[in-house]
Design brief:
224 residues, mainly alpha, 3-stranded antiparallel sheet, two-stranded antiparallel ribbon
């Protein structure tokens, strides 16, 4: 994958003075990590708008470079497959986020509303606009179809109560990227007790999402 990017998008890292500039291969790895985390997480995660924007720019560069490849060149088909693969990952990532916004829209908006100053935004501006519009359209539909036909005292609905919250107690598979010590694991049954585990780098586990959610956000673990 990195070879294909070196040929098609080497200009992404021309400014050597910026130490935090990612190579094309690192950029796609970031996208794939965000995609897997979003796909397997029961809740909506922090948006990765910068990664998405950079990947879209990279795809534009790759498409432009592909147009300059001579017809019949074996590299063309390989690079085309790589472009299609990246587009699939990007589309799947954005689609997963939209599906969660539709499923948990009142809770998503409440989290965004209540986040502290300086905290990372849960939604991109486009996602925030979509969530608000989806909320308004759902309310309008409910009123038109059902609520207006109900008794006056039943013509309102609390969306936060009506729409289920994400199940943070669901189990997820994860791979540890950075060693974590003294992780408190809650008991599964009443006759069990809490216990503490260490997560070794490179190890894989099946654990309750709530337990490792902070490490997903920090990048210390990767959902798989």
């Amino acid at each position: 994958m990195s070879d294909a990017f070196s040929d098609d998008g080497s200009d992404i890292n021309q400014d050597d003075s910026q130490d935090d500039v990612m190579t094309p291969a690192e950029l796609i790895a970031k996208l794939e990590e965000a995609w897997l985390n979003e796909k397997f997480s029961p809740e909506l995660l922090e948006n990765k708008a910068e990664v998405v924007e950079c990947v879209m720019e990279q795809l534009t560069h790759m498409e432009a470079n592909l147009q300059r490849v001579k017809k019949g060149d074996a590299k063309a088909s390989i690079h085309r497959m790589e472009i299609d693969r990246i587009r699939f990952v990007l589309s799947s990532y954005l689609r997963s986020r939209l599906q969660k916004i539709e499923k948990f829209f009142p809770h998503v908006l409440e989290r965004e509303k209540s986040r502290g100053e300086g905290d990372p935004s849960l939604l991109s501006p486009e996602e925030f606009a979509f969530a608000k519009e989806y909320y308004a359209n759902t309310e309008t539909y409910l009123k038109a179809v059902a609520l207006k036909r109900m008794p006056p005292n039943l013509q309102t609905v609390d969306m936060l109560k009506a729409v289920p919250e994400p199940c943070l107690d669901s189990f997820v598979f994860l791979r540890v990227k950075e060693r974590q010590e003294n992780i408190l694991v809650e008991p599964e049954t009443d006759d069990q007790r809490e216990y503490v585990v260490d997560l070794e780098e490179g190890s894989q586990h099946l654990m309750r999402y709530r337990t490792i959610a902070p490490f997903v956000s920090s990048g210390a673990v990767q959902l798989i």
